[in-house]
């Protein structure tokens, strides 16, 4: 749970900005290599289950293909 909180808190500070998996690994986990980027995906998935009405049609956390994720305010893309 603390990682999820740290992740959403960090993303809220960077609202609207695309954040790469590697960047999030560095800032939240303190890791600087690509091997564990799947950890970000797993934690994002848990957040989607908690904050989205439909985790398949997200409103707040958007996947940016080939980059990572971004947190958006309401219906913003």
UniProtKB/TrEMBL annotation:
DNA-binding residues: 1-73
Limits of the OmpR/PhoB-type domain: 1-73
Database matches in InterPro entries: OmpR/PhoB-type_DNA-bd (IPR001867), Sig_transdc_resp-reg_C-effctor (IPR016032), WH-like_DNA-bd_sf (IPR036388)
Presence of the UniProt keyword Zinc in the record: no
Keywords from the UniProt entry: DNA-binding, Transcription, Transcription regulation
Name under which the protein is recorded: Winged helix-turn-helix domain-containing protein
Species per Swiss-Prot/TrEMBL record: Tumebacillus amylolyticus
């Amino acid at each position: 749970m603390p990682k999820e909180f740290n992740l959403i808190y960090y993303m809220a500070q960077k609202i609207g900005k695309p954040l790469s998996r590697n960047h999030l690994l560095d800032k939240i986990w303190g890791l600087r290599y690509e091997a564990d980027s799947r950890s970000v995906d797993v934690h994002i998935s848990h957040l989607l289950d908690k904050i989205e009405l439909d985790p398949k049609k997200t409103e707040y956390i958007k996947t940016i293909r080939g980059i990572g994720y971004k947190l958006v305010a309401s219906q913003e893309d």
